[in-house]
Design brief:
- It is a single chain.
- This protein folds into three domains: about 80 residues, no CATH class; about 55 residues; about 35 residues.
- The chain starts with 7 loop residues before the first helix and ends with a helix.
- The strands form two sheets. Strands 1-2-3-4 form a four-stranded antiparallel β-sheet.
- By secondary structure, the protein is α+β, with helices and mostly antiparallel strands.
- The chain is elongated and about 80 Å long.
- Bound molecules: zinc ion (ZN) (2 copies).
- One zinc ion binds next to loops.
Length: about 170
């Protein structure tokens, strides 16, 4: 098979991607490929995995490959695990709030008592964190009111911000 020098196809194949980053991937070395096929690149991923990706899939403009697959998994998990708007006991989740030092996702929560609590998703889901702490102090104070039904108020990030603004004015 012969290629003219001007062919964009062959230019793409011969492009040296070694050491270049594509999202989470870093191209390490081209793998020996059958003649006439696009060069496959051995890439390392930030997550520690390796991936073999055809060069054009790294460099194309649309639907570029930019991780070993971990990124898609993460995005999917993040979407499935979105707790925004959900209620856990007295807490209503307002927004994602970074990670704790163990790498667990934290959530900014509004407590019915007016306090703001930061809790991990795991603790919210298994019921470890159900209030800013006010619940337990209340139980200690008045055990007979344990069965009181608590209705969480409508609370959004916008409301919270205006409330904080009022507080610090
Ligand atoms: Zn990865
Ligand atoms: Zn509270």
């Amino acid at each position: 098979m012969s290629f003219r020098k001007s062919s964009p196809h062959i230019r793409k194949i011969r492009r040296n991607l070694s050491g270049r980053r594509f999202g989470r991937l870093t191209a390490l070395a081209p793998l020996p490929s059958p003649k006439g096929t696009n060069t496959r690149w051995l890439c390392s991923c930030e997550c520690g995995n390796f991936a073999v990706v055809v060069g054009s899939e790294l460099t194309r403009l649309k639907r570029r490959v930019n991780s070993c697959g971990c990124l898609n998994l993460e995005l999917l998990r993040n979407r499935l695990d979105d707790l925004t708007g959900r209620s856990f006991g007295r807490l209503t989740v307002l927004a994602r709030c970074g990670q704790n030092r163990h790498g667990h996702t934290q959530w900014l929560c509004d407590c019915t008592c007016g306090n703001i609590e930061v809790a991990t998703g795991a603790n919210l889901k298994i019921g470890n964190t159900q209030s800013c702490g006010c619940y337990h102090s209340e139980i200690a104070a008045q055990t007979q009111q344990l069965k009181r039904v608590v209705t969480p108020p409508e609370m959004t990030i916008t409301n919270l911000l205006s409330r904080l603004n009022n507080l610090y004015q």
